[in-house]
Amino acid sequence: MKNKLLTIFKNSSSISCIIVLLLPNLSFAQNHERGTLPPPRKLTEQQAKVAAANYKKYCVLCHGEDREGHANDHAPSLRSKSLMESGVAHQILRPMSYGRKGTAMAGYLDEVGGPMTLDETWDLTYWLFEMSGVERLKFSTKPVQGNVKHGEEVYQQHCSSCHGEKGQGISAPALANQSALAHNTDEFIRHAIENGRQDTPMKAFKDLLPSDSINDITAFLRSKALGWKEERTILKALPTPEQYVINKNGQDPNFTLQDGMYVSSEHLHQALKDKKRMVLLDTRVPSVWQTAHIEGSIPFPYYADLDETVAGIPKDVQIIAYCSCPRAAADYTIKKLRKRGYTRTAVLWEGVFGWMNLGYPVMRGDIEGISN
Ligand code: HEC
Ligand code: HEC
Fold it and tell me: What's the farthest any 2 CA atoms get from each other in the chain?
C-alpha cells in the first residue's frame, strides 16, 4: 500500500509532502491510536523552585543528580523521552505518591505517611515533565490484544535476564509488580517496549521484534495482574526520644563489621534476642516504616535534617541503620552520622527485604482495604 502510493506520486513533489505527513498517521491508525495532548498546567516560578528542591532532597539518592536514573537500586531514568511523553501525569504521579510495594520505591505522599503534600507531588510530576522538554502523547486506554503464551516465550528469551523470570525485577523494574500493573496502561507498557528508554540499558525493541510479538509480551505482562486492592495504612504514632534506645539496660553488642560497615541479619537477630542495647534506624520514607518495620526501629528517613533527628540518640550506643534499597539510604545516613562523631555504627547488609526473606520478623502496620 505504501509502495503503491509512493510510485503513483513519485513525480509530484507537492503531493509527496502530503504523503510524508500522512504515512505516520496511517501507521498510528493501524495499531495504536494516539495523538498529542495539550501541555499540562505550567508551574509558577515558585512552584518550580519548590519542586526542584523536593527532587534534590528526596529523589537524587536513587534517580540521580540530573534525573538520569541508576544512581542506586537501578532506579529508572526520570528524563527519558519515552517515559515522559507517555507517563504524565499518572504513571509518574502514582509511583511517586504510593510507591511500588516490594521495591525500593516508597510512597512520598503525606496521606500514606510520606513527606510531600498532594500539591507537591503534582508539581514535582509537572516539573519532571517540564525539565524533560518533550511533547505529551495521548494513548488509547484500551487493552492491547495478544497471544499470552507466545508473549511469555518471547519474554523469557529477551527480557527475563534483566526483568527477572517472574517479572520481579533484577537490574530493571519489576514489570509484574501489582501496583505497577494497576497504574500502568497497556499502551504505556507497549510504548516502553517499542521505544526503549533513552540513555538507559532498556533498548528499543521495535527494530528487534515484530510488532505482534510486542503485543504478545504486553498481553503476557497484563495477564500477571492479579487484581490490586488499594490499601490504606492506619498511621501509627511515631516513637518518642525516650523509646529510641532498645534494651536500655542491656550490654553493648560486639559486631565484627564486614568492610568496616556491614552487619548480617543473622548477627543482628541474635543481638536482639540477647537483649543488647542498640538503636535501630529505619532510613526509608516513613510511609514504608508504617507498613512494616523491624520491631524497635525508629523512622529516620535519609533526607531528614540530622540536627533534628539525632537529638535523643546517645553518642556511645550501637546504631544500626537499614533500608530496603538494600543499602543505599542506610549507607548514606551512616556516613553522615560518622562525620558527626557517631562511631558505633553499622548498616544491615541484606536490608529489610533480605531480613524478611530470611524469615526474621517485622512489625506489620494496620492496613485496611478500600473497596470501591
Ligand atoms: C539489558 C537489560 C534489559 C533487557 C534485556 C530488557 N530491559 Fe526493559 N528495562 C531495563 C531497564 C534498566 C529499564 C529501566 C530504564 C530506565 O528508565 O532507566 C527497563 C524498563 C522497561 C520498561 C518500563 C517500565 C516502567 O515502569 O517504566 C518496560 C515496560 C520494559 N523495560 C520491558 C521490557 C521487555 C518487554 C523486554 C524484553 C523484550 C525488556 N524490557 C528487556 C532493562 C532491560
Ligand atoms: C531508595 C531509592 C529511591 C528513591 C529515593 C526514589 N526512588 Fe523512585 N524508584 C526507585 C526504584 C528502584 C524504582 C523502580 C521500582 C520498580 O518498579 O521495580 C523507582 C521508580 C520510580 C518511578 C516509576 C518510573 C517508571 O519508569 O515507571 C517514578 C516516577 C519514581 N520512581 C519517582 C521518584 C521520585 C519523584 C522520587 C523522589 C520524590 C523517587 N522516585 C525517589 C527508587 C527510588
Answer: 92
Block residue for cell numbers 560518622: 338
| Whether residue 190 has its Cβ less than 6 Å from ligand 2 | no
191 CB less than 6 Å from ligand 1? Answer: no
Q: Does the pTM of the predicted model rise above 0.70?
A: yes
> Does any domain span residue 142?
yes
Task: Residue 275: give its domain's CATH number.
Answer: 3.40.250.10
Spatial contact of 308 and 284, defined as CB atoms under 8 Å apart: no
Distance 331 CA to ligand 1 centre (A): 27
Residue 173 Cβ inside 6 Å of ligand 2? The answer reads yes
Half-sphere CA count of 363, side-chain side, radius 13 A: 13
Q: Are residues 129 and 269 in the same domain?
A: no
Residues of the chain scoring pLDDT < 50: 1-30, 371-372
202 lines ligand 2 (CB under 6 A): no
Domain span holding position 171: 45-230
Domain assignment present for residue 35? The answer is: no
